[in-house]
Specification:
The complex is a heterodimer of chains A (162) and B (239). Chain A is built from 5 helices and 7 strands, in the order βααβββαβββαα. Chain A is α+β, with helices and mostly antiparallel strands. Chain A folds into 2 domains: 95 residues, no CATH class; 42 residues, no CATH class. In chain A, a hairpin with a 2-residue loop joins strand 2 and strand 3. Chain A is elongated and about 50 Å long. With 239 residues, chain B is of the alpha+beta class. Chain B has 6 helices and 12 strands. Chain B is globular. Classes of the chains: A alpha+beta (162), B alpha+beta (239).
């Protein structure tokens, strides 16, 4: 870990606000916010982090539903466990749902793994420069070897495209 | 020995300032851990502890934490994970600490309001996404231009152990000699510190590694044998 060289590729391509979402929060979403606050308010003692929202909806996916709803980032709420990003499901220009995403501390990560199907592995040989690969896991390389690594190639590609 | 850490972050435009702070914080954290635990520079807290210059009570909380986790791991793996098997070097906690440090950096970025985080420290990956999955390629140990498999991760860690980058630095605790039998072991699970340690332990066990990996709870694996054959343990597979 000597001379850790952080290679920083910051993308602003993430989720963007719907311009009109802000106005809707004050009206229709007010009740949702109130309803959501008990789940985000910190418990009085050493209880687990406030990640449990009523599981009325399936886990959020990025794909727009057939009804035309989409999910956007909402306000960030500070809790004693750190900030929690709220998600808003917007449909037809109105907020139809307010969700608190999971906050992945270690306990929560373990819980996720136990609850969900194990990760998917695609057992196939492909060229490492393939656009479908985000990052590479491999035996530990040294700082010098990093320069020649596939990860370095991916990182520099990331810089160019942002 | 040094390595490189890559941080990949997605944030909404109005969260950029905050995520920049979080990235600074993550980099400071990584350097702090390096300074505290390195066995490659004299005078680190870890080396001073190993030399008997510091007592348990004098240690930084992070060092005590790592010490406890390492002891737990040695016990839980019946010695397959062991930080004191390299005959020529002081005990080296790197097989746990590197993963733990990278996981910590990822946690800082998530807490900083990112919507997607992928931290890769020398080939060990901690990843999280609000939407969709990260596609993590597993390096082909026999051909550096290829990946052998791809794991999809929405919240978790991928750690690989092997000696194809740096030679025979992983020792079988039973024989105290360089481990043989496997080309690489990749472990997938909720925490990168643990995944890193499990991958190293399985690699050290050689031919006995796969059966040991099957006993782990919540962690899957992809093993590539010396003969090039691959074995999937506890992961869903797709063609």
């Amino acid at each position: 870990m000597k001379k850790a060289l952080p290679t920083i590729a910051l993308s602003a391509a993430g989720l963007t606000w719907l311009l009109h979402a802000q106005g809707v929060i004050d009206t229709q979403a007010a009740s949702h916010s109130t309803a959501a606050s008990p789940t985000t308010a910190p418990p009085s003692d050493g209880a687990p982090p406030p990640t449990e929202t009523p599981q009325s909806a399936p886990p959020t996916t990025h794909a727009p539903a057939s009804s035309g709803s989409r999910t956007v980032d909402g306000p960030v709420i500070d809790t004693r466990y750190g900030p929690v990003q709220v998600e808003l499901v917007v449909s037809g220009g109105r907020i139809t749902e307010v969700k608190t995403p999971e906050y992945p501390n270690e306990a929560r990560r373990s819980q996720l793994i136990n609850e969900q199907a194990l990760p998917m592995l695609h057992d196939e040989v492909i060229q490492a420069q393939s656009a479908s690969i985000d990052t590479i896991s491999g035996a530990t390389y040294t700082s010098d070897a990093y320069e020649q690594s596939l990860q370095a190639a991916l990182d520099s590609a990331g810089f160019v495209s942002q | 020995m040094g390595t490189a850490v890559s941080l990949l972050v997605d944030a909404s435009p109005n969260g950029i300032a905050r995520i920049n702070d979080a990235m600074d914080e993550a980099v400071v954290w990584l350097h702090e851990v390096d300074d505290r635990f390195t066995t490659y520079r004299d005078g680190s807290e870890w080396l001073r502890y190993c030399a008997g210059e510091l007592s348990d009570q004098e240690l930084h909380p992070d060092t005590r934490y790592v010490l406890d986790r390492v002891r737990d791991l040695v016990r839980a793996t019946n010695g397959a994970f062991d930080i004191a098997v390299d005959p020529g070097r002081p005990p080296d906690p790197a097989a746990y600490v590197k993963g733990w440090a990278v996981q910590g950096a990822a946690d800082i970025l998530v807490a900083g309001g990112a919507s997607a985080v992928c931290v890769n420290g020398g080939g060990d990956v901690a990843a999280w996404r609000l939407h969709g999955t990260w596609r993590v390629g597993i390096q082909d140990p026999f051909d550096r231009s290829r990946v052998r498999a791809v794991v999809e991760v929405d919240c978790g860690a991928v750690a690989t152990s092997g000696t194809y980058e740096r030679g025979g630095h992983i020792f079988d605790p039973r024989t105290r000699e360089s481990a043989t039998g496997l080309a690489s072991v990749t472990v997938v699970g909720p925490d990168l510190g643990m995944a890193d340690a499990f991958a190293t332990a399985a690699f050290a066990l050689g031919a006995d590694g796969p059966s040991w990996l099957r006993t782990l709870d919540g962690y899957g694996a992809y093993v590539i044998n010396d003969d090039g054959t691959g074995e999937v343990i506890g992961l869903r597979t797709a063609a």
